Amino acid sequence: MLGLVENHSLPRTAAFFDLDKTVIAKSSTLTFSKSFYQGGLINRRAVLRTAYAQFVFLAGGADHDQMERMREYLSALCKGWNVQQVKEIVAETLHDLIDPIIYDEAASLIEEHHAAGRDVVIVSTSGAEVVEPIGELLGADRVVATRMVVGSDGCFTGDVEYYAYGPTKAEAVKELAASEGYDLARCYAYSDSATDVPMLESVGHPFAVNPDRALRREATARQWPVLVFSKPVSLKQRLPAIKMPPRSALLVAAAGAAAATAGVVWYASRRRGGTSA
Asked: In this structure, are residues 134 and 96 in contact, taking their beta carbons and an 8 Å threshold?
């Protein structure tokens, strides 16, 4: 697709990928709602609201104010949840739920960037406990994701240690460029959301993937290329050479997912209740 080969005499470069609706076809966090219900973390009503939230997310996502309200709510809702329980729930279902929804086009891009000598970095607002295992499956070199605080009792404290969202993503990209020696003018970035404009404009080669309305307008105004990814494919079939991580690695895959899911459940409930979010 890119047809470019990295000149190794030049500074290093990277390709930065948002995750949800850019690399995978759904929300990485909402996908686990049924598993959380079966594990007793959320009730049936929350599952139904989450299904609605998945529809809203796929139809257009959430704007900045809505995302901020999600963050505040998820911090309060997840306080006291046992992290180990959440990890075990996600570990049991991660491959079954995530593996089939990888975009074939995204997998091809990742392969091409690696073949050209570029690092691949996943930069996602979802929790690190989910994004890191997905990144490993994709062969990503690095992951930037939201991190929740866990107390000495093994439960969420209700605080967010690091929120990978909006301008924060751009800051993380610039920090990685400084520490890893990336030449941002020659780097690539991909996202579906207008909230990632700061990340996209920080590199020399930004791409809008399945863009929301606001990002499509921005891409048109700035003459950024627009890509359409439409073919989810089983990762095990698409990337057979990548070994699945052991169960012990998968057991780190849930705290952020539960937190972000809780936030979107709240957003959906406000929308259904007629409150402007």
From this structure: no
Domain residue ranges of the chain, discontinuous segments joined by + = 14-272
Bridge partners of 119?
14
DSSP the chain: -------TTSPB-EEEE--BTTTBSS-TTGGGHHHHHHTTSS-HHHHHHHHHHHHHHHHT---HHHHHHHHHHHHHHTTT-BHHHHHHHHHHHHHHHHGGGEEHHHHHHHHHHHHTT-EEEEEEEEEHHHHHHHHHHHT-SEEEEEEEEE-TTSBEEEEEEE---THHHHHHHHHHHHHHTB-GGG-EEEES-GGGHHHHTTSSEEEEES--HHHHHHHHHHT--EE----EE-HHHH-TTSPPPPHHHHTT--HHHHHHHHHHHHHHHHHHTT---
| Nearest-angstrom CA–CA distance, 161 and 256 | 11
Active site residues: 18, 20
pLDDT digits (tens, 9 = 90+) for 160-190: 899 999 999 999 999 999 999 999 999 999 9
**C-alpha span between 47 and 34 (Å, rounded):** 6
Q: 70-109, pLDDT tens digit by residue?
A: 666 666 666 777 888 877 877 777 678 777 889 999 999 9
Q: Are 164 and 146 in contact (CB under 8 A)?
A: yes
68 CB-contact burial (10 Å; exposed 0-12 / middle 13-18 / buried 19+): middle
Domain 14-272 top-level CATH class? alpha beta
